[in-house]
Amino acid sequence: MPAVGMGTALPIPVPHEVTKDAVLAAIELGFCHLDTAAMYGTATEGPVGEAVADAVRRGLLRSREEVFVTSKLWCTTCHPDLVLPSLRGTLLRKLQMEYVDLYLIHWPVCMKPGPITWPAKREDAVPFDFEAVWLAMEECHRLGLAKAIGVSNFTTKHLERVMSVATIPPAVNQVELNPVWQQRTLRAYCAEKGIHVAAYSPLGGQNWNGSGEANAVLESEVLAEIAQARGKTVAQISLRWIHEQGVTWIVKSYNKERLKQNLDIFGWELTDEDRLKISQIPQRKFVTAIALFSPEGEFTSVDLSEMDIVQE
Q: Domain containing 134 — which CATH number?
């Protein structure tokens, strides 16, 4: 799995061509990992597929095999009989590819089958059959439609349920991770089980819940102090720290110059003093499972508080 990736999640949809051009720009800069999801809809899966095809035609890539594509199973299709059809739909109708390199269960949340809505209705939450859904994910791998399979936003508790039945363990757990939410407990567990960790929101996350809160990473005084001393940006300090933890990071930017800056994290290291300062940053989580749901309605058979990765 490449050490760095470009994400395509956006709180507000952007035009098809804008996403396609941004993905092409990322490929030109050297990004070879593209992250998308069924939940992001045709607004990203379609443009990602088209951008890869265009990159091959232009000679930016010699073949599809030179790029690593991740997509994700959405909550409304987290049912054993819907996993394979969902992936086939992603591949045939949207990405127009024969396989994805990595297919993830997007959230440890299951909702009634139906159209993807945002935010979801709380009354649509139903019990999640982790074991049966994971076995369906394994079938996607055996059929060659997913080169690797994994999960996203899973706690150790969720991972243990999957591991109890897995004949193919999760290859990756993609979670919110940055210097302000370091996921020490979860990272240690994943390392013990041989599960690679990938980080979304490496620069502090997008405002999915509409709270208007400040970005705790980009506005961190600790990171700003280190950045000034090292002649780097705060973003570069955050991304370098994540890289030094052995974690893949996935950053979203449609600004080519910013993408280029984000790649400038190699050929230098943080000092021990830098790492100590970062380890002492107060921890706070930004993305929560409850942000998936509209404020109306009551919880049904699911305790959403248990779905958030709160271990530190």
A: 3.20.20.100
Q: Which residues are annotated as a binding site?
A: 106
Structure-token match 């990171």, residue found: 223
Task: Say if 312 falls within a structural domain.
Answer: no
Phi and psi based region of residue 141 (left: phi greater than 0; alpha: psi -120 to 50; beta: remaining)? alpha
**191 is in which domain, residue-wise?**
4-307
Whole-angstrom distance, CA of residue 105 vs CA of residue 146: 12
Which one from 40, 99, 189, 200 is the annotated catalytic residue? 40
CA distances to 174, 180, 210 from 282, in Å:
22, 7, 23
Q: Within 13 Å, how many C-alpha atoms sit on residue 240's CB side?
A: 22
User: Would you say residue 76 lies in a domain?
Assistant: yes
Numbered residues of the known binding site for substrate? 106
Residues in the chain: 312
DSSP assignment letter at 118: S
83 in any annotated domain? yes
CB 267 within 8 A of CB 93: no
Within a domain: 74: yes
254 part of the active site = no
pLDDT tens track of the chain, all 312 residues?
Answer: 999 999 998 767 788 899 999 999 999 999 999 999 998 866 789 999 999 999 999 999 999 999 999 999 999 999 999 999 999 999 988 999 999 999 999 999 999 999 887 777 778 889 999 999 999 999 999 999 999 999 999 999 999 999 999 999 999 999 999 999 999 999 999 999 999 999 999 998 665 455 556 788 999 999 999 999 999 999 999 999 999 999 999 999 999 999 999 999 999 999 999 999 999 999 988 776 655 555 444 333 333 334 433 333
**Overall domain count for the chain:** 1
